[in-house]
Structures are given as structure tokens and as C-alpha cells.
Amino acid sequence: MCCLVVPWASAQDELRRLTDRLLAPPSITAAAGFTVRVLVPPGHLYDPLWLVPRDGVVWLNDDGGEEGEKGSRLYALDQEGRLSTLIELGKLLPVTGFDVAPASFGPFAGQIFTLAQPQVAVVGATANHIIQRVDPEHGYEASVFCTLPTSGQANKGISGFGVDARFGPEGTPFAGKFFAVTAYNNTIYQVTPDGVCTPFVTFDGHRFAAPAGLGFALDGKTMLVTVSQGDIVGTPAAGGGAVVRVSPTGQVESQPFVQGLTRPMGLDFAPPEFRPFAGQLFVADVENIQIPVPMTQPLAADGKLYRITADGGRHLVASGFFNPVGVRFLKERLWVTDINGDFIAGKRELPDGFLVEIRAP
Question: Cβ–Cβ contacts within 10 Å for residue 347, how many?
Fold first, then answer.
């Protein structure tokens, strides 16, 4: 017999079983004192990344999907996780991080600034990234604000593999600047309203490299950056991840703020409404970033969420994530994004990302 003919109905059934498995809701387990629910299940988002509260809703960038030379969307989510499209596919260069400009950013206040690839697919991921300006008053028209220059030694200094981006808090030494993380060359850039992009800090030669998520201390005096040992897409060193402090002049403090993580990403401080954990830092740890090719490859549910006490103690909040990224508090709610299997153009294009809500009753 030269070949086997598979009935069409059987092929459809097999495809459905495969899709159901890949888009199955995750099993997230909360530690004692917390409750968890899947707010946006797989099937709606490709790679949900960072969360920005805005006018009663939360804006979210989804780094997936392509249309011609453009990629990714921006969504708005209400408190129940219902999605509405803010910027549709086909208008933006692929967005990895974003924020809304505050008053200290002069004439651009209220506009959206993004860290983005200069083009779609892998070739864009490993090229010098751009800062994209998006004007809500003119139909969310996007334009290139500046290109991030090469910096440092890693990967010839190319400012690729964009991760997080945000504005410095108002009334602090970081105000009036937009900060963007590119893990390919271990660098954080600063962008000023005059359109100048310059390296703020490069982690070459430091114990920890591969910067990913960024935030700011509650007093606004230091920047906090999640870092890990080894290349951002390589196998991480277990326990080799940390949160470090960076001064307003770009100096990295020698003693990490948090140690013992593996591949930390997003972070945020619990507000007063998140009792009894107010003031504690919460950090997502993907452990091993998983990029499954082929599409059917199963993923390890090794991602975790931790809280950090004042003495630096690390305590598990929830487990069962795949690749958790964004962490953002909304008063008594904590939202965590997970890209799951990652969007890879032409190889793995599956809306398997999800969003989880955690509470402390």
C-alpha cells in the first residue's frame, strides 16, 4: 500500500482536538490567602504584554498578528476583562512596550509612545528598534519618533528584542523621560521630548544582564529593573535572576533589591487596597522562556508570581503560568498577562495568550 487516505471528517476531528488542547484554559494555582480566576482565556489574544490603566479601563498591547508590513494591536479592557479594539491590526509597527505621555513630556502629553520593531518578523526583532509616537487626536496616526542607536558589546550593540517601556513618574528625577528596554544588547534607553534617544544604562560587565521589566521605587528615587544571567532567549541559570536598583544617573547598585528569581519579567507594588500586602513588590518569573516550534510542542507550566517582603523574602503567590509577563495592580485587583506559546510569524500563529486576575480576600 503506497499511502493512507485519511477521511476528511477524521482530519477535522484531529485538528479540533489539537486546537482544543493548545487553547485550553490554564490551571493557575493560588497560594493561601489569594484567589485566582482566568479573566481573558486563550482564544482572544496572541501575546498580551503590558497593562496601562487609562480612564476607567486598561490598555493592553498584543504583540501578535501581521498585516503587510505592520503588526500587533492595542486593546482596551474593562474591569470584567471584556476586550474592545483601540488600535486595529495594520496601523502599527510591532509594539513590545508602551505608555501614555504625562504632562512633563511637553507638547506630546496624552499621546502614546511605544517601543517597537522597525519591521515585522524575526528580522525586525533583531534590528535596531524604534520609538513610535501615536496621536489619539488624529485617528491614532503612528510615526517614528526616533531610532535607538547601537550601544554596548552584546550582539554588536544592536538595540533588538524590545521588552518593557514606560515614562518616569511625575515629580521624580525620572520625570520627563521615556525609558525603553532592549534585551538584545542589555540596554535601557532614555527618550526626551526633543526626539533624542540615548543609552541610559548598559548592563555589559554586570553580574546580571538581559534586562526585561522596569518600574520605580515607591519614593520615585530609583528605577527597578528585572534582570537575569545569560541571553534573554537562552536557558537561564536557576536562581540567577534578580531585581536591581538603578539611580537617576544610570548607576546600577551593586546589591540587588531581590535575588533568587530565574527569569523575572514584570513587576508592580501592591497599593493600599491590596491588604494585607500593601507596599510589597510583586514579580512575574517565567523561569524558562518557551518558544515552541513546531506549534504542537507542549509547554511546561513553570511560570510563577512572587511577592517580596521588606526584608527581601520571596513568597509564592501563584503558579501554573507558562510565560507570564505583565503585572499591574488595579486597586484590589492584580492582573497578570501570559503570552503562553509566543507568536512566531509563519511558524506559530495561535491566539493562546491569556490574562489572570488575582485577589487577596
Answer: 14
List, in sequence order, every residue forming a beta bridge with 189; answer none if it has no partner: 180, 199
- Structural domain that includes position 186: 93-262
Contact (CB, 8 A) for 327 and 334 = yes
Q: Is 57 exposed, middle or buried (0-12, 13-18, 19+ CB in 10 A)?
A: middle
Q: What is the pTM of this model?
A: 0.94
The strands making up 281-285's β-sheet, listed across from edge to edge, are 29-30, 314-321, 303-308, 281-285, 264-269
Backbone angles phi, psi at 126, to 5 degrees: -110, 25
The CATH number linked to 218 is: 2.120.10.30
Q: Number of C-alpha atoms within 13 angstroms, CB side, residue 216?
A: 19
Residue 171 lies in a domain: yes
**The three three-digit cell numbers of residue 5, written as one number:** 487516505
Print burial letters for 135-173: b (CB count within 10 Å at least 16), e (below 16): eeeeebebeebbebeebbebbebbbbbbbbbbbbbeebe
pLDDT average, residue stretch 149-163: 96
pLDDT in tens, 219-267: 999 999 999 987 777 778 888 999 999 999 999 999 999 999 999 999 9
User: Count of H helices and E strands in the chain?
Assistant: 2, 25
Number of domains the chain contains: 1
Cis? peptide before 193, omega within 30° of 0? no
- Helical (H) or strand (E) element with 123: helix 121-125
Work out the burial of residue 259: count CB atoms within 10 Å of its CB; fewer than 13 is exposed, 13-18 middle, 19 or more buried: middle
DSSP 8-class letter at 344: B
Domain membership flag for residue 173: yes
